[in-house]
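$ ./design --mode recover --in tokens.txt
reading tokens...
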């Protein structure tokens, strides 16, 4: 492992480019805001817990939490608060809700991407799956928003009533936040969030009548679709009312953290789950992966996207099972025996390329019927690297191997896991010293930085014959790859 130093690119910028930006990152359970100057210096930051899925008061609580973190960040800037150039908003993808377009009052809680309500309301036959994949670039799964909106229409009386009264608004969480946070209540959403509803076409870059018919949803209740970089409106909670010039899905921002989405880079964002993105110049047909739109610029830029559900969630699973706290020390100071068990990592279900719930998470094999804690933790971390390896190999079969692997996200703080990934992939792997890939991706997209200040640590792959053998045993113990179309 070695420090790769600074990667810098000098460029001239106007005073506006050097003025601070406010970047807002909203999930279903919390939100945060950061103010960053044009040179990358962080002026202030704030965060709030906001469990938006706890009932009809959840959306209002989330709006209040966003306004609170904005107020805290602005007050933390002192005299610079009047000079904010613009703002960006990143939102957890797949979350949807319904609200009254006249009053702005939420009619449903926020239904997250994990919410499986309505999954029985749409045909999942091979023909339907292919129609959805062809038009949206995404697989037909319960994670998409369309079936949830259909459920709301059929099961929530207030939603049906609002439709009859021509007051119904529904769509991604980002569109609701823009409606409530911005002056004039604009009814807009960006492509990256619209795509996750499974109602948006990557051919027209707009809502698709055929998909609306497929899900039995009326037209006219969805927000207008615009590019991610767009003048959405002005934030009403800040006295200077800076413009919101960016709305984007949180993971879609990640490849821009190093200035531009690079087709020669394989991006690994390690958090609750792990999201793996490989930008491509042209759309690629890949049944077991998502094809996510990153930008409309220059004719459109896409990314093949793979998902590992059991990343930090798998570590949390082990903490619950063992009754042990697992922090950074435990993640790095592991003393496992020579033959720990293998972990069948189905925590949260199996994402790509399996796309199946899978059997219950469990340990298998090893030299002891009662593996100790370090053995179990080793097996869990290996399973994360192995899930990444399976997706990495299949993406490489489609577009060739990358020149660079870049790891970001909160879980990237585990040096042990980063080295495991480098060893499992047998390729030099870089870790960003700034794990906030979503925040930095927004900052770069807003054109704020005069240079790329990214500092990287490089992990060289070590000879790993034993790890490769364990990977093959693990792969044989996992469910067969029958979840692909």
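writing sequence...
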């Amino acid at each position: 492992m070695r420090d790769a130093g600074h990667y810098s690119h000098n460029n001239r910028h106007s005073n506006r480019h050097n003025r601070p930006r406010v970047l807002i990152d909203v999930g279903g359970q919390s939100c945060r805001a950061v103010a960053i100057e044009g040179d990358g210096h962080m002026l202030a930051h704030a965060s709030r817990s906001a469990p938006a899925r706890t009932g009809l008061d959840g959306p209002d609580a989330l709006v209040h939490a966003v306004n609170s973190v904005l107020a805290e960040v602005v007050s933390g800037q002192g005299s610079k608060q009047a000079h904010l150039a613009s703002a960006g908003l990143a939102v957890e993808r797949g979350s949807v809700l319904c609200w009254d377009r006249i009053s702005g009052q939420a009619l449903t809680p926020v239904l997250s991407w994990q919410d499986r309500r309505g999954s029985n309301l749409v045909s999942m036959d091979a023909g339907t799956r292919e129609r959805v994949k062809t038009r949206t670039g995404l697989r037909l799964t319960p994670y998409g928003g369309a079936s949830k909106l259909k459920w709301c229409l059929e099961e929530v009386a207030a939603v049906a009533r609002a439709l009859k009264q021509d007051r119904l608004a529904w769509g991604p969480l980002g569109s609701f936040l823009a409606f409530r946070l911005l002056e004039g209540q604009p009814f807009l959403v960006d492509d990256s969030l619209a795509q996750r509803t499974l109602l948006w076409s990557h051919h027209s870059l707009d809502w698709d009548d055929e998909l609306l018919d497929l899900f039995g949803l009326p037209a006219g209740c969805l927000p207008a679709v615009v590019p991610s970089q767009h003048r959405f409106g002005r934030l009403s909670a800040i006295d200077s009312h800076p413009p919101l010039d960016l709305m984007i899905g949180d993971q879609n921002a990640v490849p821009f953290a190093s200035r531009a989405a690079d087709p020669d880079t394989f991006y690994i964002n390690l958090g609750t789950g792990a999201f793996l993105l490989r930008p491509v110049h042209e759309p690629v047909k890949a049944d077991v992966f998502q094809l996510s739109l990153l930008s409309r610029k220059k004719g459109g830029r896409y990314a093949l996207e793979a998902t590992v559900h059991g990343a930090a969630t798998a570590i949390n699973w082990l903490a619950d099972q063992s009754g042990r706290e697992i922090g950074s020390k435990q993640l790095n100071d592991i003393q496992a025996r020579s033959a720990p068990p293998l972990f069948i990592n189905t925590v949260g279900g199996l994402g790509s390329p399996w796309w199946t719930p899978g059997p219950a998470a469990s340990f298998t094999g090893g030299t002891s019927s009662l593996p100790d804690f370090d053995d179990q933790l080793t097996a869990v971390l290996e399973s994360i690297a192995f899930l990444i390896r399976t997706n990495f190999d299949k993406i490489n079969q489609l577009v060739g191997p990358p020149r660079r692997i870049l790891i970001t996200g909160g879980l990237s703080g585990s040096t042990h896991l980063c080295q495991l990934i480098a060893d499992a992939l047998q390729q030099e792997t870089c870790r960003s010293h700034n794990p906030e890939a979503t925040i930095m991706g927004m900052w770069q997209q807003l054109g704020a930085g005069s240079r790329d200040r990214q500092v990287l640590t490089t992990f060289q792959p070590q000879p790993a014959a034993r790890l490769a053998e364990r990977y093959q045993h693990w792969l044989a113990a996992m469910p067969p790859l029958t979840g692909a179309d």
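exit 0
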